[in-house]
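Aim 2 progress. For Max-like protein X, the working sequence is reproduced below.
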Amino acid sequence: PALFMDNARKGSIVSRANSIGSTSASSVPNTDDEDSDYHQEPYKESYKDRRRRAHTQAEQKRRDAIKKGYDDLQAIVPTCEQQDFSIGSQKLSKAIVLQKTIDYIQFLHKEKKKQEEEVSTLRKDVMALKIMKVNYEQIVKAHQDNPNEGKDQVSDEVKFNVFQGIMDSLFQSFNASISVTSFQELSACVFRWIEEHCKPQTLQDVVIGVLHQVKSQLY
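Predicted structure tokens for this construct:
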């Protein structure tokens, strides 16, 4: 009986110890889970920080690229370098830089079109000069083949003197016969002058008189 009581007492003590241990274990938090969460949380924050930092760097690069683009435009476009009195010493805004750039591009397009038209005109002139050169070479060659040809031809100076004499004679009669008081009177005088001073016989007499005058000057 004493041995039985001793064993029973020991079993009771062990049972109470197990229950106490179970109770205390259940009351204590799971340290393994906490250690796992404690180690994972800094990793998540670090990953977010890296993403945030990468995004910030990309945004800064984008802003730097835009700023460099506007700086390049201000350096290239001449009108952006000119100081606007309404703005003073203030820095040009992006809107003003863009507008001045657009205006300058339109100006360049107009200048390009103008230069293309000038080039086209010059090409036509060059083509005309080439044709004149070919004709002149043919005339020179023909003159070299027949050196005596054209000696009896009338010079350009004589032709001009004849033309000038005829025009002077007609102008004198026109100035003496025409009245410019009104348009109706002018019209009537012009028709009357044509009928009187531009008849074939009258013009023939004028030309003959001029030819005699030029001939007397030459000889």
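The radius of gyration is 56 Å. This observation will guide construct design in the next reporting period.
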